[in-house]
Specification:
heterodimer, A: mainly alpha, 70% helix, B: mainly alpha, Rna Polymerase Sigma Factor, Chain: A, 9 helices, globular
Chain lengths: 253, 176
């Protein structure tokens, strides 16, 4: 046997005769459409860009910090507004006597003395709380009422800012707070939905469980649901063969 | 990347390297499309099937394990995808006219390459699905007998006899 024929012998396909293989080669090598190539490659790129490394980063600590910041802001606003919120309860009107107390007699150091004298105090802080808010605070902390009287007296002396803006502010603040909390809630909710979707996807790790579900649906006569489950099965396990009993069931007219 | 094995490329893609997929795609673009086109004999359907198959590969990237050769894994997905296609519409695609009657335009003429090619494709298209599948998994997918058996879910002997019947019929049509 010559080396050439030995080589030919070695290259021979024991499963497909040479003549058939030659005819197959002559039939040419068809190629997919260019658009399809692009679509597949774009899909492949998009799949990895939207999942793997970027995702944990974007949903990692910045997301947590944002959530925490919104919560802290919300709680701070809530605490500040609690003093000013009208209609929390319906306390009796403030005693007229407090208005007659001479300012000098009751002017005790204010409760927020820890703030340095040089530090500019925001105008909003100096504004008088509403009587209702005072009453609520007195219920919580009677010791603070003296300071409260003093502050109220300051405001009387200043003939403080008109009532309307002071009333509008809490309403506006409350709305902002509600919006912030709602936004935060929506963010948390959507993150939760995504998390649940990811979890349910990862739960589909056992093909036998899905196959059992398909069988159960077929037995129950729920063919549409069974077909849907089959589609899910194919998506999750494209390389898994369909057992003969199921293949027969779906092939049957 | 050029010298990387298919399996390494697939695992690399699963970890997020899109370049690895491009390399892999280049390797299997033609054989996979050939597998579908030779099955359905219609380019539009073949393009649909081909794209759908790659989409399944992309979606299942996280489940690929090195222990199974990529080639066999890919063609198993292709086979399942095709079976689903056949199952959806038993009508399949009707044979294009030139394949339905390959000698119509050249009665009595000497069989040249073009006619020979057309005859081959016509004969391939008229083979029973299982036999055609076994043959195309061998010719386009370059799968071994055991792999063909595993992909199609039959024993090695069944796969072998399917191949034998398919090649016998093709040889008859080709007159060799």
């Amino acid at each position: 046997m010559s080396p050439t024929s030995r080589k030919h012998e070695k290259n021979r396909d024991p499963l497909v005769p040479d003549e058939v293989r030659a005819a197959w080669r002559e039939a040419g090598a068809p190629e997919p459409a260019e658009l399809v190539d692009r679509a597949v490659l774009n899909r492949a790129r998009a799949a990895v860009e939207s999942s793997t490394p970027g995702r944990p980063w974007s949903f990692g600590w910045p997301h947590t910090v944002t959530t925490a910041a919104v919560l802290v802001l919300g709680v701070t606003l809530l605490l500040q507004l609690r003093d000013q919120a009208p209609g929390v309860s319906q306390p009796p009107p403030p005693a007229p006597a407090s208005r007659t107390v001479p300012a000098d007699a009751v002017r005790t150091p204010p409760a927020r003395d820890s703030v340095s004298a040089d530090e500019p105090v925001p105008d909003r802080m100096l504004r008088a709380p509403t009587p209702e808010a005072e009453a609520v605070r007195d219920e919580i902390d009677p010791a603070a009422s003296a300071a409260g009287i003093s502050r109220r007296q300051d405001v009387i002396e200043q003939d403080a800012a008109p009532a309307a803006p002071a009333e509008q502010q809490p309403a506006q603040g409350t709305r902002l707070l509600e919006e912030a909390l709602l936004k935060n809630e929506i963010e948390i909710e959507s993150a939760d939905v995504e998390h649940r979707a990811r979890r349910s996807q990862s739960e589909e790790t056992d093909p036998e469980r899905l196959l059992a579900e398909i069988r159960r649906l077929l037995d129950a006569g729920e063919f549409e649901d069974a077909r849907e489950a089959l589609a899910r099965f194919r998506l999750a396990f494209p390389d898994h063969p369909l057992p003969e009993d199921l293949a027969t069931a779906f092939d049957a007219p | 990347m050029k010298g990387d094995s298919d399996e390494a490329l697939m695992l690399s893609y699963a970890k997020g390297n899109a370049k690895s997929f491009e390399a892999l795609y280049g390797r299997y673009r033609q054989p996979l499309f050939g597998y579908f086109l030779r099955h359905v004999s219609d380019e539009a359907t073949a393009n649909d099937l081909y794209q759908g198959c790659w989409e399944k590969v992309i979606a299942a990237r996280g489940r690929y394990r090195r222990r199974s050769p990529f080639r066999a894994w890919l063609f198993r997905i292709a086979h399942n995808h095709l079976v689903d296609h056949y199952r959806r519409g038993r009508d399949a695609s009707p044979l294009p006219p030139e394949l339905a009657d390959p000698d119509a335009d050249n009665p009595g003429e000497e069989i040249d390459n073009q006619v020979r090619r057309t005859r081959f494709l016509a004969a391939l298209a008229t083979l029973p699905e299982e036999q055609r599948d076994a043959l195309l998994l061998r010719l386009e997918g370059d799968l071994g007998l055991d792999q063909i058996a595993a992909v199609t879910g039959v024993g090695a002997e069944t796969a072998k006899s399917r191949l034998r019947y398919a090649t016998k019929k093709l040889k008859e049509v080709l007159g060799v």
